[in-house]
Amino acid sequence: MRLLFPLPRRGRPPAIHHRRRFRRPPPPPTRTFLAAATTSRRVSTTASTEQCAPPTLALLADHPHPAVAEFPRAGFSRLGEHPLLARAIHGLAVRLALRLSAFHRNTLLAFYFRERNAAAAALHLFDEMPERTPSTWYTAVSGCVRCGEDGTAFELLRGMREYGVPLSGFALASLVTACERRGGWDEGLACGTAIHGLTHRAGLMGNVYIGTALLHLYGSRGIVSDAQRLFLEMPERNVVSWTALMVALSSYGYIKESLGAYRQMRTEGVPCNANAFATVVSLCGSLENEVPGLQVASHVIVSGLQNQVSVANSLITMFGNLGRVQDAEKLFDQMEDRDTISWNAMISTYSHEGICSKCFLLFSDMRRRGLRPDATTLCSLMSVCASSDHISLGSGIHSLCLRSGLLSSVTVINALVNMYSAAGKLSDAEFLFWNMNRRDLISWNTMISSYVQNSNSSDALKTLGQLLCTNEIPNHMTFSSALGACSVSGALMDGKMVHSIILQLSLHKNLLVGNSLITMYGKCHSMQDAEKVFQSMLTHDVVSYNALIGGYAGLEDGTKVMQVFSWMRRAGIKPNYITMININGSFTSSNELHSYGTPLHAYIIRTGFLSDEYVANSLITMYAKCGNLESSTNIFNSITNKSVVSWNAMIAANVQLGNGEEALKLFIDMQHAGNKLDRVCLAECLSSSASLASLEEGMQLHGLGLKCGLDSDTYVVNAAMDMYGKCGKMDDMLNMLPDQAIRPQQCWNTLISGYAKYGYFKEAEETFKQMVAMGRKPDYVTFVALLSACSHAGLVDKGMHYYDSMSFVFGVSPGIKHCVCIVDLLGRLGRFAEAEKFIEEMPVLPNDLIWRSLLSSSRTHKNLEIGKEAAKRLLELDPFDDSAYVLLSNLYATNARWVDVDKLRSHMKTINVNKRPACSWLKLKNEVNTFGIGDRGHKHAEKIYAKLDEILLKLKEVGYTADTSSALHDTDEEQKEQNLWNHSEKLALAYGLIVVPEGSMIRIFKNLRVCSDCHLVFKLVSLVLNREIVLRDPYRFHHFKGGSCSCLDFW
């Protein structure tokens, strides 16, 4: 049976801003139905209706088709799966001018609204109805919302109120759904709030449907507190309401609260349906703790719903997220019915675990069984291919997307963008993204995240700006990624701008956003802002506390770290391994080790964290930073199965404490243990060579990096450049520099630092200006290097200018290392009043470096008052700091306070604090020649001292007289001169003049600062003997040539 003639078509319904005009139904005709039927077959459908099926249509009850047979009783509601039959019956009624009852008309209206592209027909039918019951209006409103005709739905609401039609929860719930779809965040919320108020006035707040719809709306807009309050006010709550609340809470990161709602629902005796279980199982999969998920799984089994495909699929996904692959496999194998989602869930489980081979085996099995992969399938496969190892397989999936026509799917392109960016192919990701015909919010979020992952913060923030110019509404994930782009030193102003946008969009209450803000401010060293955000947050989780602890740990503020840790414990938040690692990284002195580090170690043992390899490695680093290498070694030796990370931590510990030779021995042991060389290990070993000034070993390590394919790694390149610079091979360092256009930030910093150590301020400043001109943003390390260059050159005005421009121009918060440079600069020039004022006003608390620098300058300028105060502050921080006693002793000596010198040295013996002996060395081929003060243990000692006598005679010929101000013992002048002439660097120089061929540079290294007399001797030797000499002490290089030094006599 077919429709005899088509229904009249109406144009597209007017937009929401047009007022829709509803015709009043015409008055009832005077003739009866029978009279009209016998006199004319062409009566309009606007004739009045009866409440029962017309006699002719009643005959359909005997029709052989069951759906048609039920028509007199069920109307068009049973004919949804048979649209041709429904249209035929409608056509019959029109052709025979049969009057349909109000019930039949309403079911016919609902039928057309359900039909694809038939909304215009439904609205035409509505307009032509002779009588509209309240159900007619309700059906039209919900039908328009279902068809996406939201504007017409709201016009219908106005019509209902105009005609006095009572409101219903069913219609208002549909309108709330339309509000949820509104493009603008504020517009949709305002619209929903208006419907909420209308519901209140109509006394319909007890309606569970509209209450649930409002829950969905507030949840989708992130107004979680309003959703919770609405839920509590609902007089009736069914399983759908509870599920809506759980979705609202979990969508914005309130996982624990969502689980609490589930437990409360069970307590109130509300039985779960499949949808509720699928929801709560899914959110359990996002927890680190697997216990809640396993408990919910047991509830599912007790309820008997585990055979429901949707529930089983959710359980497989949860098991996959929890890493319980075998449980997921067992459940998958036991499923009697599997849909595409089932296969996708299992493939996703393997993908989550990085089991690429099983992903593709299951994918092949799926295709053999005749199931066609969808976008989700391919996205899971792309996820497991998101690495450089499997990108070739990912490219194959890309080709499959092209062949299957799925490349038009936004979801698929989003996954491809993520895959290529994660595999390091950012250009391919960019090409796909910027050529998309349509982008959703996930597209934008993925691209912003891709830029952040590839350290391209500038483009990430530009992309955020372009997103804000579209109709898409950024969400918490958008800003979590965007804040990641600002989570680097020097990006504080960018971070604050993003924070202001977050406040405008009212997303600051979101837990994920709050945690990201704390992390950003912490990385930018703006801990006052970080703590403000923390205190303003409604709820905190372990990530919140870890982010705040990590920020203070980055500033090495152990006291504040322990304060936040105590807050965490009082709040009942259980710390995790990241908490322990962050806290361990905050301690830097023996005093902090005694007060905090050792008790924390005991806590770690008691709580079982010591079994975690990462925590054990952090303890190795903690003890090393606090100067206790013995404890670091003991912890390292206690680790049964040492990973590369453990070896790296121990190598770094030795490098940090100046045991470069032991670090290189550990490197050899690590290689013998079968561990693969990685970039971190290679960089640490290069740092070891740099600290030893061992050029040959450094070059061998660099060659090993080339052989292992690590030569292009930014981390390794930077470490190799630093090694060449510290070994006095500035030319080799410059030869390694990448092109300016692609030069990483670290390389710029290393170059500026290299120039600073040589005293080349002009070159350092010019490099800084080039870097800024190339669009690179200076960071924390950049300014440490630049201020160090100012300090070595004695340029106070330049130093203060760049210090001030850090925060005001470049948005870099001053840190302790910047302040040390300024104090050192002022102290070197004897401007102690300014130095003291600066220390009082600087934005961070002074540490041992500040007081040590001030004490050293006091010794140089013989300022006893300032020096004693600095020594007092230094010893308060660490009573066993040998440098404090040595510098103070030297200060007394320069002021001829020999009684105080003797008392201090006696006290050092009492507390078993020993002065580090001076040592100088030079390396020839594979032999390191080491010299101490007055050392006669060298095999060529006689030749060396004979050479010294020869040098002395030649220097006296040009007017040399010893600078005895550097002699720190109470002896006569002759003995002072003799002691000075036996300094280790002079012995090394004499040996270098013997064995290093003329025309070759002599490279000497010393573990302490060179004294003024040795500095003078080296200058004169370079002039009289025409030799080029490089002397490196712990602070800088001295390049002697033609009677002058690169430091310009300021060091």
Automatic annotation (TrEMBL):
Ranges: PPR repeats: 133-167, 238-272, 308-338, 339-373, 440-474, 541-575, 643-677, 744-778
Keywords: Repeat, Transit peptide
GO terms, molecular function: RNA binding; zinc ion binding
Pfam families, per database record: DYW_deaminase (PF14432), E_motif (PF20431), PPR (PF01535), PPR_2 (PF13041)
Organism superkingdom: Eukaryota
Coiled coil residues, start to end: none
NCBIfam families attached to this UniProt entry: PPR (TIGR00756)
Listed name of the protein: DYW domain-containing protein
Organism: Leersia perrieri
